[in-house]
Amino acid sequence: MSQTLPPLDLHAHVVADIAPRTLEGLGAVVFAVTRSLDEYVEVSRRSDAVTVWGVGCHPGLVAAQKGYDAGRFVALLENAAFVGEVGLDGASRVPIKRQIGVLESVLSTTAATPRLISVHSYKATKLVLDLIEQTGAERVILHWWLGSESETKRALELGCLFSVNQGMDPTKLRMAGVPITLLLPETDHPSGNRRGASPRQPGQTLDVERAVGRAYGIDSAEVRRIFWKNFSSQVDSKGVFALLPPAVQRMVRFAQAK
Ligand SMILES: [Zn+2]
Cα(189) to centroid of ligand 1, in Å? Predict the structure, then answer.
């Protein structure tokens, strides 16, 4: 491993049958979300070197939400370090009641069996916070968070983290009192990096490092180091180290030693 850790991407959409070499060629550690339990089953047989696949049930997809089964989710979680994409979407065709039922089940399960978890909250920021509070889920990573300043403060009280993409203004998070130690980078490829610096690909979070660096007055190389520290402390607090690919485990240890 080189002396510099690669970029991190805590939320990206990647097709399930992508070639392993393409993923390795990204030069980044990518957390690839799935949209349904079925899709996760498809990728769960893969053994990618630096990609971590999430167990997901996207709030925007009717079939995924209908097909959610709590027992199956619990079983799939056994070997998964990461849960995503899950959440609520106020613009979805899926009735909000069903979405709430699914997310409540997901959050309660991960409160009992801690995992890294990336939560979507588009047009449903208050409801997502209510469910986090109700279920006692800890250290939830709010992905592409667009809540108001008071909601952001409430999210902080609930122990949430924030994954930031190129389409967001990190200054807003800083002004709401979010410390840089609670930030992580994401692309949300292909949606979140639509106007990002090229190459627009999963794992390309250099523009996020620069934007966060500007917002917090920190050099972007230092921002990368902080992101890795933040990520590593999540891994430890969730107890998911052993579930990560060996190469990512080495990077986590390297980040902690620095
Ligand atoms: Zn997404």
Answer: 7
